[in-house]
Amino acid sequence: MAVINEHTKSEVKEIVLDFFSEECEVDINEITESSNIFDDLDGDSLMFLELIEIFKKKYNLNIELKTIGKYSIKHPVRTIGELIDMQMLIIEHENDILSLE
Questions:
Q1: Which of left, alpha, beta for 76 (phi over 0: left; psi -120 to 50: alpha)?
Q2: What CA dihedral angle connects 26, 29, 32 and 37, to 10 degrees?
Q3: CB 83 within 8 A of CB 16
Q4: Nearest CA-CA partner of 71 in 95, 37, 47
Q5: Alpha-carbon torsion angle 25, 30, 31, 37, nearest 10
Q6: Region for 12 from its dihedrals, namely left if φ exceeds 0, alpha if ψ lies in -120 to 50, beta otherwise
Q7: Residue partners of 81: CB distance under 8 A and separation at least 6
Q8: Does 70 score more than 90 pLDDT?
Q9: Which domains does the chain have, with CATH numbers?
């Protein structure tokens, strides 16, 4: 688990935007927090898995994919902003994310 500060928030946002810009072949300046991952960027669920792996390595996270799956069913992510928010919760709470409900 990590403490979330402004640097972490900025870093997570930058990683997410860079990732979707590259993967979806969209100019990074065209991606906002309200961009719909599926409708606006033609993203898919496999991208979530790739991003989770990136963050697991970067922040040395111990979280199981089934935990993220259970959380995502109750809190679906559609926009870049929602994805950033969820990623912050994962970094901060790891497997305890389910206890936030």
A1: beta
A2: 10
A3: yes
A4: 95
A5: -60
A6: alpha
A7: 32, 33, 34
A8: yes
A9: 6-100 (1.10.1200.10)
Can you tell me the distance from the alpha carbon of 15 to that of 3, in angstroms, rounded to the nearest whole number? 18
Strand partners, 36: 79
DSSP string, 48-98: HHHHHHHHHHHTT----HHHHHHHHHHS---BHHHHHHHHHHHHHHGGGGG
Angle at which helix 45-58 crosses helix 6-24, to 10 degrees, equals 140
* Beta carbons of 72 and 64 less than 8 angstroms apart: no
- Per-residue confidence at 5, pLDDT binned at 50, 70, 90? confident
DSSP state of 36: B
